[in-house]
Amino acid sequence: MAFIQNLINGIGLGSVYAIIALGYTMVYGIAKMLNFAHGDIIMIGGYVAFCTYTYLGWPVVAAIVASIIICTLLGITVEFLAYKPLRGATSLAVLITAIGVSYFLQNIALIIWTSNTKSFPNMVSFMPSVSIGDITISGTTIITIFACILIMVGLTTFTSKTKLGKAMRAVSEDRGAAELMGINVNVTISLTFAIGSGLAAIAAILFLSAYPTLIPTTGSMPGIKAFTAAVFGGIGSIPGALIGGILLGVIEILAKAYISTQLSDAIVFAVLIIVLIFKPTGLLGKKIREKV
Amino acid sequence: MANKEEVKLVSVPSPNLIPERDVNSSPILEVSHLGIDFGGLTAVEDFNMAIGRTEIGGLIGPNGAGKTTIFNLLTKVYQPTRGTIMLDGLDTANMNTIQVNKAGIARTFQNIRLFDKLTVEENVKIGLHNQMGYSAATGVFRLPKYWKTEKAMHEKALELLSIFNMQDMANFAAGSLPYGAQRRLEIVRALATNPKLLLLDEPAAGMNPSETAELMENIRKIRDEFKIAILLIEHDMNLVMGICEAIAVLNFGKVIAKGTPTQIQNNPAVIEAYLGKQAQEELKKEV
Amino acid sequence: MKKMINKSTVTSFINYGIVIALFAVFQTLSATGNLSRQLTGLLIPICAYVIMALALNLVVGISGELSLGHAGFMSVGAFSGVITAAALQNSVTNDVARFVIAVVVAALIAAIAGLIIGIPVLRLRGDYLAIVTLAFGEIIKNVLTCLYIGVDSKGLHISAVSEEALGLEATGKAIVKGPMGAVGIMKISTFISGIILVLIALFVIQNLINSRTGRAIKAIRDNRIAAEACGLNVVKYKLIAFVTSAAIAGSAGALYAMNYSSITPKKFDFNTSILVLVFVVLGGIGNLTGSIIAAIVLVALPELLREFSDYRMLVYAVVLILVMIISNNQKTRAFIGKIFGVFKKKKEGEDN
Predict the structure, then answer these.
(1) Which residues in chain B have their CB less than 8 angstroms from residue A292's CB?
(2) Does A269 map to a domain?
(3) Chain B within 8 Å of A292 (Cβ-Cβ)?
(4) What pLDDT is attached to residue B2?
(5) How many independent structural domains does chain A possess?
(6) Distance from CA of C183 to the nearest CA of A (A)
(7) What would the mean pLDDT of A89-112 be, rounded to a whole number?
(8) Which residues of C fall within a CB distance of 8 Å from A35?
(9) Range of the domain at C56
């Protein structure tokens, strides 16, 4: 019973990772960059929701929407100011810039909200927890899993059915060719950042509702974990992000429950390494054959 | 047409598609029933070939016929799905690219692959890497062997560069060289690995007629001086017909003809592969 | 060739010269009491970060592989160095001798860690390699956080549970206490030893780069497929670069740790790896002189800007972004090229 309980908690945490990983994977697929500032967008999303909900007393839905809008705008702005000028630069240059953006956002948060820990309220407490026998599934977990499924279905439909979604896939496949076909690459990339950052806001609220410590570096660890999840599943692949995220969450919770709380992160990363040694491009990643 | 016999070879491949020039010695390379599939697609099928020790062979065919794939199979960039490759009597089945090079096959690339940030001389020294050696520690501590070997490598590199008269460019970054010089440098680098068989992938691509004529002379000179076999892929028919002693024609991964330049030029299957059936018939009418 | 050897030799000696000159300047300032307390305290960490930047440049610049976990090797070196020094405290009484042994052991153990990590990891390419090095850095940090080590007359005791589980004698003492890290460290690092280590790191890296081995490493970076076709053992040479780099990073860790009375595993986390990567990138990929200068300036600067406390990291972030954009954007590059072009033309004109 305890095992099933842990499994469900793992899927709950994994769903959050999956939502964040989607942001990573979409941006990587299109812009071919590791957006290390993604975790910090989560943190900003958390603060916006916290302030609007706790200080301004807005209703939950309004606070969530505000958080999504701010994060989306932030994502677009960051892309426009910091990453767009670096199109065609080496991936290392873009990576360092993303790290600069990450420092920037963390320090802005530090100045605005100080380093004092804020206790994030459970914003999805309207959902009661469900008990089946010995197993209790918290309302947050239910909402998180539900949100993750909804987002997955939505994104898959979007990328396969809509014109913009198809444009996104085309750009990620071959930017040059997409441009020649009349696709506006810049708009597509902005759109990707917008979606990824919006998802980060949702992830922030779900994550912080379960783990309520809010400080300027809150986003770092879930960011790195979600990045790991994206790589785990095969970076650039949307179903890969889902599978990677959920597996990572489950491994983390099971490692905490049965092996060691302190070593759980080490175990998660060790599993990642083992997977990459046997499947160098992740679980669902495409095998790359270099043309000679 | 005198070449009916050759056309028949499409369905009945013989192991020695390229006739031997050096009749008295065993061939340097013997390939039999070589083939590779990519997924469900057969890129090369039942490829057979033998090259004499100091022979210049040519591999021609339309784009996408599988010529470069054969080079990649010979150098183990791809592992063959079927068939055997014997290099100087040695089966290369369990070798990788590195071991194949050490065993004696060197190559150039269709899309030039130089070490762009290294100098011309350093590029050649990489070719010499396995011929002249000292350990990493010798290098770090600058032991006498370091100075001695580096000096010898320098002299050898300049000597090799002089084949193409490139000694003066020794200190230029390889990536900054003009196109033709880059192609020549690739050949020098390949030669520096001391091969028994040199594979040249479109050596004349992007060269003007006078450069090509010079290259032809040099390829012949390399064969004569180094006493090695050369197999080249080339679209420039003047070059192929001018220096190759034997030619194999590939289409859709299969050998459709083999023989001397004269035999190939008159082979209807070759003309069809290059020009299409209709054009061939029109050609006949004109004749 | 004469010319070329001269060029690389000249660059090498310029680097030695810079390090020795800086040493002379700081030593004089310090001796005459003109160096602020903050800066004096930073001299050894600066040496350690310069060594780290040089080590990482060997991997990122020369070998062309992105490592996001180099602080892990620094950590391994720091802890093995501290443990060695503590274990030898009674048997080797000379501080210098103990420091040398500790640094050598640190470098060796970090090299072994580099080998263990490098063998599986170096088969991966690009971003996947980056994420795996990041993961290894985190694993090292995590494992060290769970480690308890003590020493008594019977030798070293190791436990992954708690200090009590070490079962030390009454005279024994715990050296590493899990999340608290290494404690009670004897501060035996000195500025001179730091400078000597920098010079040794420079010597090893520069001579390696300008040898047959370094040439092979650079060739593999420029074109792996062509390198294989020339018969170069790609994995071997990548491993040489990676392991050498790990060993040097380990020695930097030992130098760094033995400058403080205690040190936690958290000190060497992802952010430290990134910090060193920033030195390498801002100093110029593959440019050792740049790495040295960037490490010195970027370690000293935030400390000197302490008055601006809250804003200094913000300024740092903005400067980092701007530098990356200006130096990598095609338009700004062309613009800078034009400015320099004007200077160049002027110069040429003068020559004529």
Answers:
(1) 68, 72, 77, 109
(2) no
(3) yes
(4) 39
(5) 1
(6) 20
(7) 91
(8) none
(9) 43-138+186-347
Percent of chain A with pLDDT over 90: 66
The 10s digit of each residue's pLDDT in B99-137 is 999 999 999 999 999 999 999 999 999 999 999 989 999
Q: What's the domain range around A175?
A: 12-221
Q: Partners for B (CB, 8 Å, 3+ pairs)?
A: A, C
CB contact (8 A) between residue C225 and residue A265: no
pLDDT band per the 50, 70, 90 thresholds, residue B16:
very low
What is the rounded radius of gyration, in angstroms, for the C-alpha atoms of chain C? 22
**How confident is the model at residue B18, as a pLDDT?**
47
Q: For the segment A133-184, what is each residue's pLDDT rounded down to a tens digit?
A: 888 889 999 999 999 999 999 999 999 999 999 999 999 888 889 999 999 9
State how far residue A169 is from chain C, nearest Cα, in angstroms: 20
pLDDT at B283: 64
Residue spans of chain C under pLDDT 50: 1-4, 346-352
In chain B, whose CA is at the least distance from the CA of C203? B140
Residue C159, domain member (yes or no) = no
Confidence band for B284, pLDDT divided at 50, 70 and 90: low
From A289, which residue of chain B is nearest by alpha-carbon distance?
B78
Whole-structure pTM value: 0.89
Using a CB–CB cutoff of 8 Å, tell me whether B194 touches chain C. no
pLDDT, position B9: 28
Report the residue of chain A nearest B73, measured CA to CA: A292
Query: Is A129 part of a structural domain of the chain?
Result: yes
Residues from chain C that touch A262, judged by Cβ atoms under 8 A, are 142, 145-146
CATH number at residue C218: 1.10.3470
User: Does the residue C340 lie in any domain?
Assistant: yes
What is the full DSSP assignment across chain A? -HHHHHHHHHHHHHHHHHHHHHHHHHHHHHH----TTHHHHHHHHHHHHHIIIIIS---HHHHHHHHHHHHHHHHHHHIIIIIGGGTTS-HHHHHHHHHHHHHHHHHHHHHHH-SS-EE---TTTTSPPEEETTEEE-HHHHHHHHHHHHHHHHHHHHHHHSHHHHHHHHHHH-HHHHHHTT--HHHHHHHHHHHHHHHHHHHHHHHHHHS-EE-TTTTHHHHHHHHHHHHHH-TT-HHHHHHHHHHHHHHHHHHHHHT-TTTHHHHHHHHHHHHHHHSTT-SSPPPP----
Contacts of B129 in chain C (CB under 8 A): 212, 215-216, 230-232
Least CB-CB distance to C226: which of B113, B133, B149? B113
Does a structural domain hold residue A145? yes
Task: Decide if A201 is inside a domain.
Answer: yes
For chain C, how many structural domains are there in total? Answer: 1
Taking the Cβ of residue B83 and every Cβ of chain C, the question of whether any pair is shorter than 8 Å is answered with no
- Rounded to a whole number, what is the distance in Å from the CA of A291 to chain B's nearest CA? 10
Structural domain contains residue C223: yes
Does residue C150 form part of some domain?
Answer: no
